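Protocol step 6 of 9: fold each sequence in the batch and record its structure tokens directly after the sequence line. For illustration, a two-sequence batch is reproduced in full.

Sequence one:
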Amino acid sequence: MASRTRLFTRFRDLPLENIPKAIEIINVVIFDINMDINDRILNNPRFQAKVFTGEHIDLCINYIKSSIANTHLFISNTISNEMIQVIGAIPQTKFIYTFCNNDQYENFPFTNSKVQGAFNDANVMFNKFQQDIRELDYNSYSQESSSQTLDGKSAEILWWRIFDKILLHIRHTAIARDELGEFCRSWFCKDHTELRLIDEFNLGYESCNAVYWYTRDSFLYGLLNKTLQRKRCINDIFIWRLVIKDIMSGLMKIAQSNIFYRSNLSLTVYRGQTISLDEIKRLETAQSQLICINQFFSTTMNLDVARAFLGISHYSESILRSVLFEIEIDSDNITNTTHPFADISSNSHFREEQEVLFSMHSTFLVKSVELHDKNIWRVYLKSEDNIWDTDFDERSIFCPHADEIFIRHLSRENKQFIVFQVLLDMMLRLDQNKYAKDELLEFCPSKYEHESIEMGKINDFEQNYESKDAAKWYTKYSFLYRLLNKSLRIETIDYIVKMRYYIHDLHNQLAELQSSFINTLNPETVLMLYRGQVMKKNQLNEIQDNIGGFMSMNSFISATQDPAVARVFSGMGENLQPDEVSVIYEMTIDTYIRSTPYAKIDTINPDEQEILFSIGAIFKIEKIDQLSANIYSVKLTMTHIDDELWNKLTAHLN
């Protein structure tokens, strides 16, 4: 049975509807009310709203029962208390808001726990509804992560921490801002207030103001945290890359000036919110263990401010509970370098809240969970910041280097290899859209602006490139070939991100061509390939020292079925520098191993019989023979390593 590809592969016929969306549509029912706010609900794309008149109560109830989503219900006080009980008993009913005429709201009987209040002002009622949505959406832990401890999900948390560090290495572009603007407008297309704020953001946003923008009562706070909660939507989270980077970088910078970090003191911060009973139970289960928060996590140094956010649970049977988090921060145990937090009072839109903001994917030790009185739970946490393995930093993509790394020896560099693979896998999971292509077309000219011949080729590429021609463009040995392979070998994150559009096309085209190519080899199941190149002597010595071990290729690599062609590309031991040798790889390929896509491609010179491998092909080093004074043969066998760490890292994505 053939092995599956290691890096994510998406064929071009993948239906877009199978890709998860980040933002949840809210189901709303308006029963027997004619309010000024009706249009604000009906015209908001985030609300799926249905209106029923008073004589259609049965239709209204059937509609709520048939819904697969939680429903928020606006009703008039003309409906009987018995009918409120019936509607409240429907599992899909989330909250009920009652609109009363004149002063009747003061005497409205709260006989069902789902009734959030009685109102005689439609705007006040709508504001309460928005507050409840905000609390449910943004102040709660996401159900996917609230009770997932690091013991049970450590590989997944590691993936997200690598993801976060990757975002910190991506440079801003106007294209990325335009993409974010379009994303936000799509969710607020009929909300003119938010659209004005989005326009203000597009025109006036600067990196130094990221924390201020985050604390404003605007589209950014809610939509960003909602996107972060939907962890599997990598595309949507990636769209926020410039804001996420700026907030995290801003927190690092602000933290350096906080007095707390220059002392050896402990600090206690607080957070008030309402969460479900199920989430409280998960926190109880997680006592003495570490948890990770998906989103940016707001706290305050002022206990009274935290209490103001507790909310009120009117009835013991309510599905929500008020929870006060008390979080201990010990400066002796905090490095604040990987996932920072800071007192952002001087940078906040609401300075009086004395806010301390934690970065997304911050980790906390759950010390205890206690019910202090009938309505309020206390959760005691301790901030922890010592779970990052520094081996993932050394000589990896997070440690910039100018020297080109052609291969990695997995016996001693497996963690660095894993980090590089996470970056590539992430790029391959992103959508092929106009913004990815635009960033590629902006990036390439910036590296060849003084080379007229290459600029002409770039213009040709911009005008004529199609995804089906990816391999053809690779063989032209032009700007694309050189820039792609250099970017991969020096492992510059920003360069690789900017080239993601072409990397995606080339990788997936090889995957598409692979099966048909292998079918042409039948009945043979073993393929012999050759690759010739000039190599530094110290690189050959490293291979010699790792005979019997495994190595991976850091870029797309070409091989040939013709050994004579490989000898030509090796230089045949001639015209070499003193520190160079000619090397001919002899590569044995079991065609049942397909963890890396490869295929025969059409080239400018068909006689070369070129076989192109995608990034990250893994080979076992069998032996090295010296053929002459400066010519060596390196025998390799392509292999598939069933990497347990890699499987765990990516399991949550599949």
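Sequence two, same batch, same settings:
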Amino acid sequence: MSKVVIPLNFKAALVLLGILVPFWTGASVTHAQSLVTTQHDSSQPIEITADQLEVQQEKQLATFSGNVQAIQGDIRLQAASLQVHYWAQDGDADVEGAISRIMAKGEVFFSSPGQTAKGDSGVYDVDKSLITLEGKVVLTREDNVIRGSRLVLNLATGRSKVSGAPSGSGGRVRGLFVPNKKVKK
């Protein structure tokens, strides 16, 4: 595996920051359901490693493939591949290179101290402010675990929804919630 370190001014690094900041800041979900720590410093550099990076300007697409890892401080994103879709250059400095969509495929895994989220694939739709994680979704925070087939996080409203498998297939959302242990004095 070759190491690819992407400077922050590179479009793909900006795209990655666009998907991870909502997770890292915890702004989109309640404290009890937060996927990440609220103390994360999103101004830290992002290091992306992958076996390969391909940029297709004509398609406004950057693809990292092969054991992709993105690390910012103590936060990590892992996937087999990461596709970053961005808007075409049209002379508008506010839109040029802006992220439109990010797709992570193949054992997608987000982690921060004490918390993880994983699934088979994930999509961040910037225009709709939606993050969707699908396929064997498992959310873990300390000893608490939620399992389902689909997770949708609405960053605009702060609502999240975990769904089971389609009706008739027997799949249901499962949760294991461990009460806090109070220390007796």
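Proceed to step 7 once all outputs are recorded. Observation for sequence two: The longest helix spans residues 11-25.
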